């Protein structure tokens, strides 16, 4: 396994093992609090079809294809606020993937989509384009490995690169890669490292700047 950062595209950097085991365990504990409410974890419906991935949101609630403060497609409750520690974590992620001091200082993520994948879950190729801001997306993985497909900005087909994301990995994509199509083609069951806080499944946190105001 290569532990060195790798570049998947212009503005797209993968850093293996970025989160330590203790950080992973702590975040999994937070995840259990998030799914307890006020808005429960749920599978969103895209064009009438329920996703295999289940999502809980922080800061802003994502529903295809918009952000709202209240989960009007679930129970009408307001989602939990975006935590300050996650802002600091996002800024650290940019700093450690070569972004300038000005870019780091300007990075103020205000929403997180926290996805839970079981063994059968997949994520089709898509662009993260519901945000008004094109600030980088910071992605963190905990639990089972997955095969992550990172593509181009023009369509869902080739060229794309398949990489294995493991527990603790950081992936940041911005700049020319901000609107690249990407997805998850497979979750590899029973690959979570011992002591990470999850015995099965995968948590993926993507933090973003929406560019929205109340």
UniProtKB/TrEMBL annotation:
Q: Which Gene3D superfamilies match?
A: Alpha-ketoglutarate-dependent dioxygenase AlkB-like
Q: What class of enzyme is it?
A: oxidoreductase
What EC number(s) does this enzyme carry?
A: 1.14.11.33
Amino acids binding Fe cation: 126, 128, 182
- Family annotation (InterPro entries): Alkb, AlkB-like, AlkB-like_sf, Oxoglu/Fe-dep_dioxygenase_dom
Tell me what this protein is called.
Alkylated DNA repair protein (DNA oxidative demethylase)
Q: Name one GO cellular component term.
A: cytoplasm
Q: Name one GO biological process term.
A: methylation
Per its UniProt record, the required cofactor names are: Fe(2+)
Keyword Methyltransferase assigned to the entry: answer is yes
- Is Ribosomal protein included in the keywords of this UniProt record? no
């Amino acid at each position: 396994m290569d532990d060195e950062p790798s570049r998947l595209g212009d503005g797209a950097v993968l850093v293996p093992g970025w989160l330590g085991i203790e950080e992973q365990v702590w975040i999994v504990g937070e995840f259990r609090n998030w799914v307890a409410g006020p808005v429960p974890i749920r599978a969103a419906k895209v064009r009438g079809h329920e996703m295999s991935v289940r999502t809980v949101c922080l800061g802003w609630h994502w529903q295809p294809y918009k952000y709202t403060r209240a989960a009007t497609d679930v129970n009408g409750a307001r989602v939990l606020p975006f935590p300050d520690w996650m802002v600091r974590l996002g800024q650290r992620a940019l700093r450690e993937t070569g972004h300038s001091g000005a870019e780091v200082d300007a990075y103020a993520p205000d929403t997180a989509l926290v996805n839970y994948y079981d063994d059968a879950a997949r994520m089709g190729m898509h662009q993260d384009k519901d945000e008004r801001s094109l600030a980088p997306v910071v992605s963190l993985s905990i639990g089972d490995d997955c095969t992550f497909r990172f593509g181009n900005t023009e369509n869902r087909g080739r060229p794309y690169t398949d990489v294995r994301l493991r527990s603790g990995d950081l992936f940041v994509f911005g700049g020319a890669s901000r609107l690249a199509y990407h997805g998850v083609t497979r979750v590899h069951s029973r690959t979570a490292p011992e002591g990470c806080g999850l015995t099965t499944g995968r948590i993926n946190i993507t933090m973003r700047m929406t560019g929205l105001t109340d």
